């Protein structure tokens, strides 16, 4: 089956069965490995991407159901041109093992797009689906506040 | 080779005979330098195994697994400090599996003695013994040893490279080396002429390395200050390469279904899988099945269609039976009695006696990145890409799996999506090797499902602790503890070396026998349950058990003595070892500890000494309409020398949260020989809304440097239990607490 996807502003034609989850299309077919596999059951958030700006678990979205434009961590910014949220993450020195951080950043970016001034309670509500076994939560929280400040300045 | 095996076996014996045996046996091998694994090509110069310079610039090698603990940054900073380069001017790589990258601190850790009482002489014995690691290929990241291991050696490597570059410049200019100085990757003459290292490297490589002393701490530019981590930008942009991210031309994707009973397979039917679109190959692995496909998801789907019959487990199939076996270990002679002060058989006249039994469950590591490895077998060469804490062991075991010599195997170590001890095992790499052998010249990435990962771990073993204590006039006068569990050391050494360790197992009683508490009658005995349930090193190993067992019981003793639990600990710590007492005082002051809490708030203190680092924690819980939330935490630790405070703080908080995840929710159970938990919904962890607001104090009162990766984990569990007791008046002696309390989830 042939499916058309727009990912990070680029057009892709994918020849795969329609029931393959978007996560594996991104990783194994297109080679965008920034989006991570953690659980396969939407309980860890490592695979979070945006579809039309909404944060979704890509392990639960079938290829045939992708309803809009996909943005992955690679589309947010690059090492040479990081987005404000990524700069905030680097300044706060958030990552330890780093495996969950793509998903954390995608989830936080969706939060900030909707709520430019999140309280700690807002952050709890938005981020509780994103697991981090290294326990970077305090720095993620700090980085979200820093990013909120940066995005207001911009 | 036989004698090397013997060294390995004897080294892991713990006791004076072992040290003598290890060092004596090792004398020849130990003094022999390991070859430099860096093979410079035209125009490149490898000044030592840690510094390579070519026309493009300086590359530093930090051959420890970067699993989040910041080792790559701090090791690079140690080299850069002496080499006079800036971290943003250099590349930092992991490097190959090589004897030169042995861990000098890990074997020293097995020395007898409590650790905190080690003399300078014993520290140097540990360093000498540690060099045995070179002989047996102990390139292992673990045991919170990287900073202990790297602190002297990496600075020495940087200093030697610097002086050798200066010597090359001196010869070129016809001046004395002593007249030259270095900065910013250049040698500078008295008249200000600058020669870049890259222009001196080839000449320097032809010289004998110059030995140089390392600089005093007063001259440090980088070390001791928080550095921007070299892996941070990559990890925040999705560009850092983890094992699961390796992509090679023509690569196929595989997954496995191995026996959930860790046994054999009597039959399997793959006819449905073979018909599935995108399936390339079904491979019978004897103890399971691998499926190679066009993508990982198709491989996993195809595995779900298999019909397999498994053999029975070689261990008791039910949790209750496993714990009955652990309990029966108390009936045999103890394996160790590493603390035996005074006389614990007689309760002092007039003392109040208490006793209690504690129990902790089996635990999975649950790294965020499931087990994965990518392999390519050509028939005469084998390459493996994976995140590993033990590359030399991966090299040896993969070589055996594909029928090649280790020299024909290249291990490419990527970033690790969490280690916690799990990636010190070789199983995931060996399975990839076995699959790859069936697919010559095709790169294959093998990724386990989360369910496969959780059901095929080497678990932190369950344990039972039996304690008797006595208090008199508000003081601790007696503590007698027995800990029964499986030995992680014995199983892991058997897997690593093919030779089981014997003798008293320090790991089993770590965090208990070496508690820096002065109690006149104090005994700790370890009892081993010999069972085939797969167990292994889990962040802080035995201390993850004993921190909870011992320090919860100490809390009970404080209450029996009608004393404030923090003061009670402080008194016995002060009398034993100053740095331990200072941690307790610091956490008392940070938290504003008064020993009194209002209704609806509970506070508990926990203290553990492990891997050379004393850590005290205070945890505060709040009752919110019947649901208990962990609100705040305070941590005080002493690592002797804090090479990078930001990283030490992150490790302390992360270690604590890892421990709190286990204390609140973590439990692996067995039914019919299979692990019952499958994924995060039934093996949950602390999340954003359940993590406490935390303050950390990093102290430097100890004389010797010690690690930070693990010691934050053990005290979190008793601190939480003691806080829950303060809040509710209920003393729960079994983890996880979610079985007894209504915790916020």
Automatic annotation (TrEMBL), chain A:
Entry-linked CDD domains: fer2
Domain of life: Bacteria
Residues annotated as domain 2Fe-2S ferredoxin-type: 1-76
Pfam family, one: Fer2_2
Keywords: 2Fe-2S, Iron, Iron-sulfur, Metal-binding, Oxidoreductase
Iron-sulfur recorded as keyword: yes
InterPro entries cross-referenced by the UniProt entry: 2Fe-2S-bd, 2Fe-2S-bd_dom_sf, 2Fe-2S_ferredoxin-like_sf, 2Fe-2S_ferredoxin-type, 2Fe2S_fd_BS, Beta-grasp_dom_sf, Diverse_Oxidoreductases
Protein name in UniProt: (2Fe-2S)-binding protein
TrEMBL record, chain B:
Keywords: Membrane, Transmembrane, Transmembrane helix
Domain Aldehyde oxidase/xanthine dehydrogenase a/b hammerhead: 237-314
Transmembrane domains' residue ranges: 12-30
Full protein name: Molybdopterin-dependent oxidoreductase
Lineage of source species: Bacteria, Pseudomonadati, Pseudomonadota, Alphaproteobacteria, Rhodobacterales
